[in-house]
């Protein structure tokens, strides 16, 4: 694919306290990060080890807050819902007004991004392509949203939403989701086989699964490293996201 795809996003803020009711500025800072990272125009891409510089992908995706709502009325692309529920889990209750959350907008037109307080230290979660429209989209805890406001180190770089949108476009975790084994795959050819998740800010190289001398690509958005330690998608991952946008999520591109 040559051109850019520009995806309309609706951000649903579901809050039970003033701090959970994140500012427009915090939401805009998140959109800015998406527009940088999915074009490989993030300054820290220069930290990708030389051996992998050729694999860095410009995913050619852009994101904008929705300008019209499902009824065709002008909108700022943000819904705000006051809730009696203090925090949420991965059970999708935040995605329904009946359970104190906010209903999805049509998932064939919008990327739904719910912002709320998640429990158990969860940063976010996503629905892969092919699921129910009513729960489709990504959820990000407010302290990992964007780069300002309540965003809190080490997850204050807006990379949780980058990672979750990767899942939403069918990317798997780079270690293949088999914990520390070497048999799991992310179904992407140009990412090294890697044992398990990396966290924090690893030192290069970190060799597992006989993937030396270069080791794990822990600076990939689909690992579990800190926001300041992840800064690339590969060309193979970009091709996989493209395939999703050509098939399961084709309607989003029109
Ligand atoms: N734990 C989450 C998931 O598996 C997100 C991890 C995001 N990492 C980050 N550095 N922001 O979907
Ligand atoms: Zn993940
Ligand atoms: Ca593995």
Keywords for this entry:
254 residues; 6-stranded mixed sheet; 14% helix; binds calcium ion; binds arginine; binds zinc ion; 3 helices; alpha/beta
Question: Mind explaining what this structure looks like?
Answer:
It is a single chain. The protein is α/β, with parallel strands linked by helices and 254 residues long. The chain is 14% helix and 13% strand. The chain has helices at residues 24-37, 159-168, 235-246; strands at 5-15, 61-65, 78-82, 111-116, 124-126, 138-141. Strands 1, 2, 3, 4, 5 and 6 form a six-stranded mixed β-sheet that branches. The radius of gyration is 18 Å and the shape is globular. The model has no long low-confidence stretch (mean pLDDT 98). It binds arginine (ARG), zinc ion and calcium ion. Calcium ion binds next to loops. Arginine is lined by residues 123-125, 144, 155, 159-160, 163-164, 224-227, 230.
């Amino acid at each position: 694919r040559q051109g850019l795809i520009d995806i309309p996003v609706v951000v649903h803020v579901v809050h039970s306290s003033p701090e959970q009711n994140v500012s427009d500025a915090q939401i805009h800072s998140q959109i800015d990060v998406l527009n940088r990272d999915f074009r490989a125009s993030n300054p820290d891409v220069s930290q990708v080890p030389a051996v992998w510089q050729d694999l860095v992908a410009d995913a050619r995706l852009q994101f904008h807050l929705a300008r019209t709502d499902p009824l065709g009325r002008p909108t700022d692309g943000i819904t705000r819902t006051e809730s009696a529920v203090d925090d949420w889990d991965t059970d999708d209750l935040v995605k329904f007004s009946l359970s104190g959350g906010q209903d999805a907008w049509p998932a064939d037109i919008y990327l739904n991004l719910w912002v709320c307080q998640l429990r158990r230290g969860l940063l976010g979660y996503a629905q892969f392509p092919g699921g129910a429209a009513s729960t489709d989209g990504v959820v990000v805890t407010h302290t990992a949203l964007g780069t300002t406001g309540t965003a809190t180190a080490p997850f204050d770089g807006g990379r949780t939403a980058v990672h979750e949108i990767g899942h939403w476009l069918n990317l798997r975790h780079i270690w293949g989701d088999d914990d520390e084994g070497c048999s799991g795959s992310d179904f992407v050819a140009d990412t090294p086989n890697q044992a398990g998740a990396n966290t924090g800010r690893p030192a290069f190289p970190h060799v597992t699964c006989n993937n030396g001398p270069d080791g794990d690509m822990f600076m990939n958005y689909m690992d579990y490293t800190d926001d300041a330690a992840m800064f690339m998608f590969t060309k193979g991952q970009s091709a996989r996201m493209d395939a999703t946008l050509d098939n399961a999520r084709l309607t989003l591109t029109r």
